[in-house]
Amino acid sequence: MNSHTILIVEDELRIRQFLRVAFESEGCKVFEAATVANGLALAGDCRPNLVVLDLGLPDADGLEFIRTLRTWSDVPILVLSARHLETDKVAALDLGADDYLAKPFGVAELLARLRALRRRRDNRSPDDNAIIQFGEIIVDRSKRYITRVGKSVHLTPREYHLLTVLMAQPGKVLTQRQLLREVWGAGHSEDGHYLRIYIGRLRQKLEVTPAEPCHLLTETGIGYRFTL
């Protein structure tokens, strides 16, 4: 994560110090804030490459930080929180967080999550993602053509749309509501069974072992994640 600027928004000094040491050991420049207000001000001043955010802040809920920041910035946000309810995770992700790591956590997993966010951000380009390869699959989005070990793979329009939505943000957890709104429309935001059926179809067509997927991953109770 060298040459990256990270903003930590966390009210517990001990945790901020722990995170600072971990990030600086990777060559990152670190800024700290203990409140939503200070965090937003710093985000505007230092323009970080990544934000690490606690939800339980003294002046406002961390969800307010996400909601406000997303009005003017698409910087990746990793939420760290002691809240373990799936509803809290879904709320943060629906508002625009990119990933969620529950406390307590290990530094190795934390740094791995941030490296994944950085790769997704650094690889974002209007033209670079015309052709995407994962496992045995090659997707040519300019031609809407998919092959598996050189053989054509047929996807229905809905299956292809769902796949491209997931591929557009590799490594990011997309909630069920986000995917349903994007692929089926606003009136289907509660129809989770659609997703289960179509994800199952995609796994049958694209995964080497559909029952143990490597690329179309389930985040239980939350949604799905695509990984290269």
Structure description:
This protein is an alpha/beta fold and 228 residues long. It contains eight helices and twelve strands. The protein has helices at 13-24, 36-46, 62-69, 86-95, 107-122, 157-167, 176-183, 192-206; strands at 5-9, 29-33, 50-54, 77-81, 99-102, 131-134, 137-140, 145-148, 151-152, 173-175, 216-219, 223-226. The strands form three sheets. The protein has a five-stranded parallel sheet with strand order 2-1-3-4-5, sandwiched between helices. Strands 6-7-8-9 form a four-stranded antiparallel sheet, with no helix packed on it. It is globular and about 55 Å long. The two termini are 19 Å apart. The mean pLDDT is 87.
Fold blueprint:
Elements: E1 5-9, H1 13-24, E2 29-33, H2 36-46, E3 50-54, H3 62-69, E4 77-81, H4 86-95, E5 99-102, H5 107-122, E6 131-134, E7 137-140, E8 145-148, E9 151-152, H6 157-167, E10 173-175, H7 176-183, H8 192-206, E11 216-219, E12 223-226
Parallel strand pairs: 1-2, 1-3, 3-4, 4-5
Antiparallel strand pairs: 6-7, 7-8, 8-9, 10-12, 11-12
Helix pairs in contact: 2-3, 6-8
Main sheet, how many strands, which sense, barrel? 5 strands, parallel
3D shape? globular
Share in β-strands = 15-25%
How helix-rich are the residues, as a percent range? 25-40%
Count of strand segments: 12
* Helix count from the secondary structure assignment: 8
Which structural class fits the helix and strand makeup? alpha/beta
The value of Rg in angstroms is: 19 Å
Side-by-side strand order of the widest sheet: 2-1-3-4-5
Uncertain stretches of 5 or more adjacent residues: none
Average of per-residue pLDDT values: 87
Order of helices and strands: EHEHEHEHEHEEEEHEHHEE
What's the end-to-end separation, in Å?
19 Å
